[in-house]
Amino acid sequence: MAEKRDYYEVLGVSKTATDAEIKKAFRQQAKKYHPDIHPGDKECEEKFKEAQEAYAVLSDPDKRRQYDQFGHAAFDGTGGGAGGFDFSGMDMGDIFGDIFGDFFGGGRSSGRRNGPAQGANVRLSVRISFEEAIFGCTKELEFNYKETCSTCGGNRAKPGTSPETCTQCNGTGKVVRQSQSLFGVVQNVTTCPSCGGSGKVVKDKCPTCHGTGYNTKKVRKTVEIPAGIDNGQCVRIREYGEPGINGGPRGDLLVEVIVSGSRDFERQDVNIFSKASISYAIAALGGDIRIKTVDGDIIYTVAPGTQTGTRIRLKGKGVPSTRNKAIRGDHYVTLVVNTPTGLSREAKEALKKFDELSGGSLTKEGGASTDSKKKKGFMDKLKESLDDL
């Protein structure tokens, strides 16, 4: 028989670990190796048994003290259960409740009585333009709003009657089920199916709300969309969600913002990107061009000899930060040299003359000299384009 591993090593904790750390470590091991999650996997089953055995000892102060003093020898000869332990007396409900709650979206299992709980959040979406996302805007939304029924006051019962305590859960809103497993009796706490967790049942329902406790009406609400909001982000409006349960607070309204694309700009976080066409004359000689930004057109001076693909930075012309309104990103513009088409014979001759005067070699019959094998600049590319006209 293989030698047993150290219990602290099994759970991955130190010998000075607190009870909370031991419980957390076992929960992680149980989530990883539980047989219900890995049906038929013998290795996972053995590792789960090993972790449960370690937890059974280390979570019990007396057993842990004995183990720290004598090791595994402290429990030799003990009957029952995996590794000589009897798990039937252990309440593992909170541990397993956490495990399966995490996997299947349920809440944490506990024996707490039913109390006030916050209502669910409601989600809506609104579409705005690229520019509205940059500078912020206001939108008016219409949506269904559940308000407390004025007839029954939210208790769901017909006037003159009252909700009664649920007989299945005795008003706790929870039912406890026990099942026998390989490791003993496991206790599982779930929402009562009769009362839906409220702890109360209504025999005579309110005729106005039909036993729901609320009435639905259409409401309009103006929503402030902050400057700099990005696609998919939400604006939260407090207490415009579902009604609370048993006197709990309302949920919130979450407005998801859908930002339309732009023909002129692209956005990456707080920076904006665009392209601007410039003429071959401006690229070669330099000069002023007009660039479109989200703030309006600006004049920018292009340096002589600018190559296509050159990127310029317009500082502070990007997107405002939602965390600090005083900060804005930048606008990056890629310059693209616009090669002319449909030139007249005179225009072509003029450009070839210019190339000759500037030391070019593409005007020679038969192609370029060995100098043209070097990296091509703007004028080289321009002449290639002209030859194709």
TrEMBL record:
The cofactor(s) it depends on are: Zn(2+)
Task: Could you list this entry's UniProt keywords, alphabetically sorted.
Answer: Chaperone, Cytoplasm, DNA replication, Metal-binding, Repeat, Stress response, Zinc, Zinc-finger
Top-level division of the source organism's lineage: Bacteria
**Can you tell me which residues bind Zn(2+) 1?**
C149, C152, C206, C209
- Per the record, the zinc finger regions (CR-type) lie at 136-218
All copies of the J domain together span 6-71
Q: How does it assemble?
A: Homodimer.
By its UniProt entry, which PANTHER family does this protein fall under?
CHAPERONE PROTEIN DNAJ, DNAJ HOMOLOG 1, MITOCHONDRIAL-RELATED
User: In its UniProt entry, what is this protein called?
Assistant: Chaperone protein DnaJ
Q: Which gene specifies this protein's sequence? A: dnaJ
